[in-house]
Predict the 3D structure of the following.
Amino acid sequence: MKFAVLPSRVQVPTPDPSALPRRHLLSQLLSAQTRLARVTAGPGFGKTQWVAQWAQQLEPPPAWLTLGHREDDPHSLLVYLRAAWLRCYPEVDTEMLDSLLRQGFAPERWRPVADALGCLLEAGSTCLIVDDVHHLQGEALRLLEYLVQFSPATLGWVLIGRELPDFDFLAAWQTRGLVLEVGVEKLRFLPEELQELGIPGDSGGWPMAVDAWRRTGHGGGEPEKLFAQVWKGLPEDLRDLLTRCSVFEFVTPAQVAQLCPHLDSAELLSKAAEQGVFLQRYGAEQFRFHPYARSFLLEQLRHSQKLTLSSHQAAAPVALSQGDYDEALWHLFEAGATQEASSILLHWGPALLEQGAFQKLQHYVEQLPAAQREPRLRLAYAQALARSHQFENALQEFLELTTTTERPQALLGAGKVLVDTLQPSGAKTLLRQAYGGLEPEQKSQVLLLLAENSLNQGASRQAQRYRRLALALPGGSQDRLEVRLHLRAGNLEQAREALLREADGSGTGHRNEALLLAYLAVLQGDFGSAELLTRSALRQAQANGEKFAESVAWMRLGHALQLKPRCAAEEVRVCYSKARLLTEAMGAPRLKAEALMGEALFCAHQGEWVRSYDASLEALEITREAGDAWLSAWLQLTSAIAARLGQHPGWQDLMAAARIQFEQVQDRFGIFLVRLWLDPSVREEGFEFVLERPTLFGPRVLGEAPPAVAPAPEVVTAQLRLCLLGPIQVFRDGQEVPHKLWKRKKAKELLGILLSLRGGFISKERLWDLLFPESTPQAAARDLRVLLHALFEVLDPDRPHNATARCVVRRDDHYALPWTEELSLDLVEFERFVELGGQAADAEEAAPLFQRALDLVRGDYLQEFPYADWASASRERWKQQYLETASRLAAHFWQQQRGEQVVQIAHLMLQRDRCWEEGYQWLMRVHLGQNRLAQAARVYDQCRQALEEDLGVEPGEATEELYAQALG
């Protein structure tokens, strides 16, 4: 792969033949047996000329890199070091290094790429010279230090600069005699040398002043005075050329001819080089401005704004013709020509993205006015933000781009950000909308993202379906979902085996193989392996600047440390604190939930039950808003564990709620743990380790009787039935509570919120936010009290005066409506019938169970609150379950040749989701089976219109095949 490199930066400069020789310095460097030579002095001391004279005498020839003020980032430094080395050893294999450079990396994540470059350096035994090292700072400087310290012993380094850093290893190398220092005193001309040359002593031995005296007959020890004196004596045309061309650091006659067509460039360049103060030869046809002199010339240029702008404007195409996009962009921005800069970036941006130069791309795009950022360029910018883990900014950019010509790619980018940050609620819609507008090779990627997203929602069966579709497509690639499918199903040993079988070190962030193994280890009580894995992953993440992986590593380390027999409590707290801070900084709130879960478990076993409960509730709000049903189930168990250890009377109700959620996401390990907490005598094959050693979610004190708990709350005497599948209905003793008894309209919304938590607690502050977002805290507190009283009157009018309804649990300022056996819910019955149907021996036995489930449905889940964020994740999961159940029932009726029932089921599907393509397919099959071709075609048109209007996609292959049959 090619990377943009300016050739003059990686070639050994040609020494000026008229330069004064420094023979005693050359002999020092040639005779030195060192690993590192450091040449340090200010401008005008002839550092580059002297080292170039030395380099000409080396065999084999050295590699040379001249740094500039725009090459101070690690990615650019590695690209140029690669190019410098290839000039000496063009046959070396760069495939691994090129792949890593192309993938890109965060500024701090350079170590694996540096190691790949180090492997290239093993191929030779020459010297690597780096000039102008003072331009490097931050991570680029740390990268250079790492390369020098760990490069092969056969490679020598020469670092040249106005100032050089004191590397950490420098003192040790100096003690061993591995370092040669050449500073100002060695570079300065000695008095006897000045006397021999006949040059006055007021030059101070400064090489540039000495050279100026020799060439012009005047000079001095101060650069400004020297330049001013020489400048006065120059002819006007030479002044004009030097001023205009000072916008370049390196110049050639051809460049000058383009920049100054009205001047005799070749003759004037030769004059300037002979004069030697402002310009020096750098090769046969190349010249370089002296840094001090260039600063002086640029100051002269700034006296005329018009000349400044025109010089930079003229310099840009010159740089562009050499392929130096960095230089061209600098000139254009200096000239204020942002429209031209935008055009260059539009062409170059995708290449920067491919090379992994994310920060460089961001830097340039952010300098453009918003109106000049073309959609294609903004898309590359958003992708750079996402790959730099700036998730919030990336998501905002992608969403803004959905109204442009880049809509499909923007939808894909936004959906991927939500999947990467474990926020499944919004990802599904975005990815489905993206699917139809993408090229075939990207559709497999979308389906795999949908599979992973479904897994994050706890819909394992749907995830497997998407995965099969993706792998069946042409070009469909293998994925890493098998491990997580096993993990979320509670098959821990199978997950571990699959992970060990597939691990190749390519996983990033929460997909990092070591961190997944560590999580499996804490679930199984192997805290030693978990600690070892997480500390190793943590070191690697910190070295690479991988904030995502670092945050997960801190969480998993906290999990491991709290299982140790004598854990350091403060260290555990620090782990979770650091993890939370990192996730907040990245704009990935869903990741914070696991840190809160670990902290809640730790506090529960430390006796800090209030903090434990608050942490688990805070995390539950995050996961429910994100739509992560699987982690919500584990957090529900966490809150139940805290309640049990804190001897709270409602702990069994919380355990029951956790079991319902684990059954919904089909996690057998979670179900077993709930049963174990309720009955310590429970056993299950494959989970014996929970009884043998402390685990993250199991009892920590093995063999001990469960703690005594307070008596259970009084059971409600009246049988309550609550209906969520449609408009909310409440029945007491078989009689529906009439509408007039709902004295507050928001009382139903409050009931909906409590029911959507499936027995979990919610704080009063969170209820304020959901119910009264515009009110002050004082007004919200007052209105919530009124609302609670109204709801309690509906649920339990016979309760004691001013008491909480007996079906509601209150703990401090938190409320819950446990899903107990005394409480009848249509949603629970729906899920139970679906579960029984799935366990049936055959379709004939399953059909009536599925039918009973559908008969319970009067409308959408919590139909009165279609736009409430607090209900969206639960509604989406229920709708998916409903549609899959309806599809299975329709398939049974189709096999039984009961077309009328198939039509009824299909219409029910489309009532729930008018874009559910399977509903249209069943209608078309029935019409085709009865030879009603026109009706089948009309159904297709309805399907096409719905998909186009709502999702922006076309019907799938199966629908198109049915349509072809309708057309005959």
About this structure: The first helix runs from residue 23 to 31. The two ends are 52 Å apart (CA to CA). The longest strand covers residues 156-161.
